[in-house]
Design goal:
The protein has helices at about 35-45, 65-80, 115-125, 160-170, 180-185; strands at about 10, 25-30, 50, 55-60, 85, 90, 110, 130-135, 140-145, 150-155, 170-175, 190-195, 195-200, 205. The chain is an alpha/beta fold and about 220 residues long. A hairpin with a 2-residue loop joins strand 8 (about 130-135) and strand 9. The longest helix is centred in the middle third of the chain and has 16 residues, at about 65-80. The chain is globular and about 50 Å long.
Length: about 220
């Protein structure tokens, strides 16, 4: 079960200008599960650009709660692989929660807020790979988060927190995770909560695009 009703169009080249060249379009597919493995497989198949057909609805629409966290996990793991994503997002007109998502590949369109063009500009101008990631070490996970512009490091080494993080990589019912742990992750802006679902926001670093200490 993915909870995701997206249809993805796959492209061999990251530049949309090449779309009409024979062989560049690689067909369509639906998201696989888990999304980290799905993104890994797409990359190994040569996919370098993906178009999502459905708007990612982050406006608080309760009927889309499960789909939202599934969509965010998908965009997160495609971003981690450096795959270009053409996606649209609908935001709450009065919220600034988009700042929690500005480590994801910038959307091609933002719907909802009156200042959507300005949000889009800020998101695009500030985006770079590995802006908010987690890396694994022996017995610990370290989060390196620069979404606010400053480096914030957090190390998880308690088994209860490590287990919860693994569960949250795919969208889960909140009751599957200890409430105290979920509240701690929420306080650090490491999860997105939607209805009764939640998903982990940092992505697993695949390789550093430049020396890791600069990220």
């Amino acid at each position: 079960m993915t909870g995701n009703d997206q249809t993805l169009t796959l492209w061999r080249h990251p530049d949309p200008a090449t779309a009409a060249i024979p062989g560049v379009q690689m067909g369509t597919t639906t998201p696989g599960h888990p999304t980290s493995r799905f993104a890994h497989d797409l990359y190994n198949q040569g996919v370098r650009r993906v178009t999502l057909d459905q708007v990612v609805d982050a406006s608080g629409n309760a009927s889309r709660a499960a789909a939202l966290v599934a969509d965010l996990a998908l965009v997160r793991d495609l971003t981690a692989r450096g795959i270009i994503i053409e996606w649209r997002i609908r935001l709450n007109p009065t919220a600034s929660e988009w700042r929690l998502l500005n480590h994801l590949f910038p959307p091609t369109a933002i719907l909802g807020p009156e200042d959507a063009p300005e949000i889009s500009r800020k998101w695009t101008d500030s985006f770079y790979l590995c802006k908010c990631v987690h890396r694994h070490g022996p017995g610990f996970v370290q989060v390196r988060d620069r979404r606010t512009g400053e480096l914030h490091r957090l190390t998880l080494d308690e088994p209860e927190y490590l287990a919860a993080m693994e569960q949250l990589l795919d969208r889960v019912d909140e009751t599957a995770v200890p409430e105290t742990v979920l509240e701690d992750f929420s306080a650090e802006n490491l999860v997105w909560r939607s209805g009764r679902f939640a998903v982990w926001l940092p992505y697993h670093v695949q390789r550093w695009p430049w020396p890791s200490m600069l990220v």
